[in-house]
Amino acid sequence: MVAAQSALAPQRRTPANDVIHNLNGQRLGRKGRDTRDRIIEVAEEIIAEYDEAQITISEVARRANLRMASLYVYFADLTELGLAVLEPVMAEAESSYLALIREPWPDAELGIRCKQFVQGFYQFWQRHSGILHLRNTMADRKDGRMTEHRINAARPVISLIVRQMGRDPADVGSPAVGMATVLYMGFERAVNIATDKHFGDVMGERFAPNATHYMEAEARLLELAIQDYRATTEK
Question: Does the model's pTM come out above 0.90?
């Protein structure tokens, strides 16, 4: 989420592409910005208190003390509201895990670096599992904008893994890109299960996710894949 602000002078969100108009084309004044921020905050509260299955536009409007017509002045639908909640979350991706994989990893440190990266990715999901599960659930239901967001979140990780392999991520049809893509899919699925609030309710005692084992396995697979590609002469 956004960084902690001074209790005496709270600051509103400042996304990269700051919204300056409502959906009616009217320029947002202080009241309009405060209302928009409140809608996003309420959505965050609902997601944190319940889960991705509980949030609806009508519940957000009720909790924000707004008529539905007033909420629709700021957000056209749940997807648009979800993307607004995701914006400050994804701003944390760089410091949480992308920065851990940007610099080339020395061969001698490969194992520990892989563990640090996978752990950073997992901790990011732990902090923001509600909205990330909502995004993925909506993407699985064929929501085009959430699908695009999910893909765009994966792309930099895949490219950086390919670079760690010593290959060119621009060669999108290469085995290295295919391997990196499969590895990312494994990371995301593992953290998805490990942070799913309902998994235990459905499975009961039949299956208990072990996040530590999952992350250790994912880190080892990443290490082996990078080692394998670095050891070959394929260009």
Answer: no
